[in-house]
Amino acid sequence: MTVKKDQNISELIKKTRKLAGLSQLELATRAGVGKTLVFNIEKGATNVSFENVLKILKVLNIKIDLKLPIQGEEQ
Predict the structure, then answer these.
(1) How far apart are the first and last CA of the chain?
(2) What is the pTM of this model?
(3) What value does the mean pLDDT take over residues 54-60?
(4) What is the largest distance, in Å, between two alpha-carbon atoms of the chain?
(5) DSSP for 43-69, written as a single string
């Protein structure tokens, strides 16, 4: 699957979940989070913990590469 540069995480999770043939409840159960959380993430309607997003991404086999700024480094 190709991810567009401007695609947000909620769209990515929803599209990947559907491609995997999972319902929101199945994804939530496998990730160990509530169905409401998955629903809210897909609707972009809530702030969620990074930990819960990582659980969902893991179930969907989505890998992310984060580039964090190093403190004290001049730019």
Answers:
(1) 34
(2) 0.76
(3) 94
(4) 46
(5) HT-S---HHHHHHHHHHTT------PP
Q: What angle do CA 40, 13, 30 make, to 5 degrees?
A: 80
d(CA 71, CA 67): 12
**Tokens of residue 53, six digits:** 């997003």
Q: How far is CA 46 from CA 7, 21, 42, 67, 74, in A?
A: 17, 24, 9, 24, 34
Angle at 32 between CA 15 and CA 13, to 5 degrees: 10
State the virtual CA torsion across 9, 15, 19, 20 in degrees, nearest 10.
40
Query: Which of the two residues, 50 and 3, has the higher pLDDT score?
Result: 50
Residue 54 neighbours by CB under 8 Å, 6+ apart: none
Ramachandran area for residue 2 (φ above 0: left; ψ -120 to 50: alpha; else beta): beta
Q: How many CB atoms lie within 10 A of CB 45?
A: 9
